[in-house]
């Protein structure tokens, strides 16, 4: 996809901004607190229904304003002109897609494929498993039509089972929910396992570019129960007594995780902070590349403050490989990085200052 226009109102310090990105590399410079990350958050919001810094109600709306709004125009993979708008009060939202009301935020997010790498992205490697499940499910959401209905079935069954567990159910009351949870959960896990298996060689490539010294990168899927030993139905039954005591479901795909292992490195703990960041970046770019292979077009790539995260050599490598693919990139920096010459020359430069954006 190719973003051509982004209008933002009342998102953090951005009171009223019109952004007109071009194909290729778009560089946005500005001092600390100028509004660079806020601009990235606006794009991320349309692609995910939330910011990478949290939910809308957690400070995304400009102080003193009732709502934020973001409007975007872009060209999809078939070259069609598309548009979407979102107004969000933190509680309620209103979204439009190509001139008609969008029935849910999910419909909107399905149309805008965005991947982001920002200073908090090392959480993908170092943080809790919810980051990694979100990463996994983003890809499936975009490339696997079966995913969303199965995910919804699973989420509903889990909610019902947990509600029952808290109530102390009569014997047998859990059975139908266990059955539904097991059936949806097995499908969900197969989709996740298949995706990670497809992603693994792509990741081995991107990680090999950034961290060749660590040896080949592999992906290990942790499905949320001992999937190799028994089906989910059995795991749920085995966990039932414990679940009744604890009041929630302790096994299943809602506990799933994955991790990157390097052949040349025995334990994940041994990664330095810098290596964690590079591994996270390798995962994000592998995901974008794998998306492109499945869908025939690159997602929009947002790289917030990348120069403060990477040394010059890795920065050149990362930008070089993304731009060579023809992807559209939004890159922010406090100052234009010195390496942005030749093939890495920005196609357009913008400057943001106290929430105002100007071109050039
Ligand atoms: N809800 C809000 N309302 C108004 N201003 C905000 C809000 N949240 C954050 N800000 C301000 O927005 C500015 C933009 O920050 P940010 O986009 O992170 O800047 P940069 O990435 O350029 O350093 C900061 O000065 C911050 O204080
Ligand atoms: Mg920032």
Automatic annotation (TrEMBL):
Family the entry assigns: Belongs to the RecF family.
UniProt-recorded name of the protein: DNA replication and repair protein RecF
One MF annotation (Gene Ontology) recorded for this entry: single-stranded DNA binding
Entry's localization field: Cytoplasm
Annotated keywords: ATP-binding, Cytoplasm, DNA damage, DNA repair, DNA replication, DNA-binding, Nucleotide-binding, SOS response
Its biological purpose: The RecF protein is involved in DNA metabolism; it is required for DNA replication and normal SOS inducibility. RecF binds preferentially to single-stranded, linear DNA. It also seems to bind ATP.
Binding-site list for ATP: 30-37
Matches recorded under InterPro entries: DNA-binding_RecF, DNA-binding_RecF_CS, P-loop_NTPase, RecF/RecN/SMC_N, RecF_2
């Amino acid at each position: 996809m190719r973003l051509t226009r982004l209008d933002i109102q009342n998102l953090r310090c951005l009171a009223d901004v019109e952004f007109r990105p071009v194909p290729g590399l778009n560089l946005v410079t500005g001092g600390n607190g100028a509004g660079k990350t806020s601009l990235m958050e606006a794009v991320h919001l349309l692609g995910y229904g939330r910011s990478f810094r949290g939910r809308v109600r957690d400070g995304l709306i400009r102080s003193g304003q009732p709502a934020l709004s973001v409007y975007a125009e872009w060209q999809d993979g078939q070259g069609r002109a598309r548009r979407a708008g979102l107004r969000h009060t933190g509680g309620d939202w209103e979204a439009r897609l190509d001139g008609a009301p969008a029935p849910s935020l999910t419909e909107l997010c399905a149309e805008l494929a965005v991947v982001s790498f920002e200073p908090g992205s090392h959480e993908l490697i170092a943080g809790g498993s919810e980051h990694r499940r979100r990463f996994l499910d983003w890809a499936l959401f975009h490339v696997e039509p079966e995913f969303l209905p199965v995910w919804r079935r699973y989420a509903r069954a889990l909610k019902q089972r947990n509600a029952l567990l808290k109530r102390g159910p009569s014997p047998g009351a859990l059975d139908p929910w266990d059955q539904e949870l097991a059936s949806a959960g097995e499908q969900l896990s197969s989709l996740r396992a298949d995706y990670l298996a497809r992603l693994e060689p792509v990741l081995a490539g991107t990680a090999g570019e950034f961290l060749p010294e660590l040896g080949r990168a592999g992906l290990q899927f942790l499905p949320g129960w001992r999937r190799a030993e028994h089906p989910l139905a059995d795991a749920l039954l085995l966990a039932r007594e414990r679940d009744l005591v604890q009041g929630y479901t302790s096994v299943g795909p809602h506990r799933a995780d994955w991790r990157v292992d390097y052949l040349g490195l025995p334990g994940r703990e041994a990664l330095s902070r810098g290596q964690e960041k590079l591994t996270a970046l390798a995962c994000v770019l592998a995901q974008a590349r794998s998306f492109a292979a499945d869908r025939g077009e690159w997602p929009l790539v947002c790289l917030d403050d990348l120069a403060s995260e990477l040394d010059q050599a890795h920065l050149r490598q990362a930008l070089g490989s993304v731009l060579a693919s023809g992807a559209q990139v939004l890159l922010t920096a406090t100052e234009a990085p010195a390496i942005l010459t030749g093939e890495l020359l920005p196609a357009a430069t913008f400057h943001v200052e106290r929430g105002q954006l100007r071109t050039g």
